[in-house]
Hints:
It is built from ten helices and 18 strands. Helices cover about 35% and strands about 35% of the residues. The protein is elongated, with a radius of gyration of 50 Å. The strands form seven sheets. Strands 3-2-5 form a three-stranded antiparallel sheet, with no helix packed on it. Among the domains are: about 180-280, Band 7 domain (Tetrahydropterin Synthase, Chain A); about 285-325; about 325-365, no CATH class.
Amino acid sequence: xxxxxxNENQRGFLFRSGKFSGLLEPGKYRFFRSxxxxxxxxxDQPLCSNRCGLDTLLSCSEVSKQTVAADVPxxxxxxxxxxxxxxxxxxxxxxxxxSVYDKHTFQMVDITSPTIDESIPKYIFSYIPxxxxxxxxxxxxxxxxxxxxKKLQGILEPGTYFFWKNGVKVDVxxxxxxxxxxxxxxxxxxxxxxVSLRINYVCNYRITDYVKVLTEIDDYEEQIHVTAQLALRxxxxxxxxxxxxxxxxxxxxxxxxxxxxxxxELYVQVTDGGVKxxxxxxxxxxxxxxxxVAEKRAQASVITRREEVxxxxxxxxTAKLMDENETLFRLxxxxxxxRICQNVGSIQVNGSGDLLxxxxxxxxx
Length: 365
């Protein structure tokens, strides 16, 4: 005799001569036949047996009453919820779970297209293995071009996106929508008077059409660069060095207008631009420095002469006033006597005459 105990959280599968015979409820069982075998299973595990297939088990009415089954076709997934909480994701195939203590529900998902339906809650992707989906992050300052098998699907705005992995290759290319700076450096250009001039130009732009800038032109950055180069050469080649140095702002405006004229065909907006540096050959710099020094010295000489004339004129005016006014003359005399006396240690004057007259005579003597 064989005795078997089935616990409360278990069920038993009875087999006779290797064939499934029925379901055993919790309890104690005795078997006298030697060909009887019992396989006990837990209720919190999927319905399965090591001795027979799932279809054989579900063909038993007692088993089917206590279980719930899910058939997942090809190109589909099943989101498995237990008691209303997400539990797992199921690939194509047939599944069954005990429903004695738990409620099992399934949400079928068509993954023929990588695009995920809005009805799928986003939080479950924190629990689903990454092998089921592709995650795409688009920053606030970006836009992303979306491709399925190298075919453009559209533009993604800032946010987080998920796509099913179903054999279709999902790619994205990012576009920076912020104002971007471009430097056009080291342009060696000959002026009209054959002076080699090196100019560094800088401009700011932003992309206006994220799709056409990639699909309709080849390397828009190089196109902007070449346009600025040609505009610089065109302007510098038609002007002499002195004209360029005196009207630096005009060359900046000329190149900017040439860039803005091509905005529509380049699918960008050029907001501003200007000459950053203008570098002259060494010998030209020396000559210009010499000219500058000479100009400054001439200006200093003119200022010195002007001040000398003004000083002489002031002295002449003072002399005329003192000649016409004896009191003013005496005051001026006293002023100079005061300055002289500041540098004398002591002065002795004798007699009872005019003290000021004696002091003046003493100083003149």
